[in-house]
């Protein structure tokens, strides 16, 4: 199962405590900085096909219904 945000597909994301994932420096540049926060530990980027170390958590905004 994947989640797509701003045209970017995530294959690693969480729905606990909101909808979020983690992104590497390269992919973080594609998102508004207000969605990002510093990442603890050494998780892997959640973007499909990327295996870089994540630098940030990304909190996805709630979808408008």
Fold blueprint:
Layout: E1 3-5, E2 8-10, E3 20-23, H1 25-28, E4 36-38, E5 56-59
Antiparallel strand pairs: 1-2, 3-5, 4-5
Short recap of the structure:
By secondary structure, the protein is mostly beta strands. Helix content is 6%, strand content 26%. The protein has one domain.
The string of secondary-structure elements, in order, is EEEHEE
Mean pLDDT: 93
Gap between N and C termini: 21 Å
Into which percentage range does the β-strand content fall? 25-35%
The main β sheet shows up as: 3 strands, antiparallel
Relative helix content: under 10%
Keywords:
mainly beta; 1 helix; two-stranded antiparallel ribbon; single chain; 26% strand; 65 residues; 5 strands
Describe this structure in words.
The chain has 65 residues and is mainly beta. The chain is built from 1 helix and 5 strands, in the order E-E-E-H-E-E. The strands form 2 sheets. It has a 3-stranded antiparallel β-sheet. A two-stranded antiparallel sheet has the order 1-2. A hairpin with a 2-residue loop joins strand 1 and strand 2.
């Amino acid at each position: 199962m994947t989640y797509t945000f701003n045209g970017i597909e995530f294959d690693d994301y969480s729905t606990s405590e909101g909808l979020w994932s983690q992104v590497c420096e390269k992919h973080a540049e594609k998102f508004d900085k207000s969605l990002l926060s510093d990442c603890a530990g050494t998780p892997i980027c959640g973007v499909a096909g990327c295996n870089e170390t994540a630098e940030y958590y990304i909190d996805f905004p709630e979808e408008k219904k």
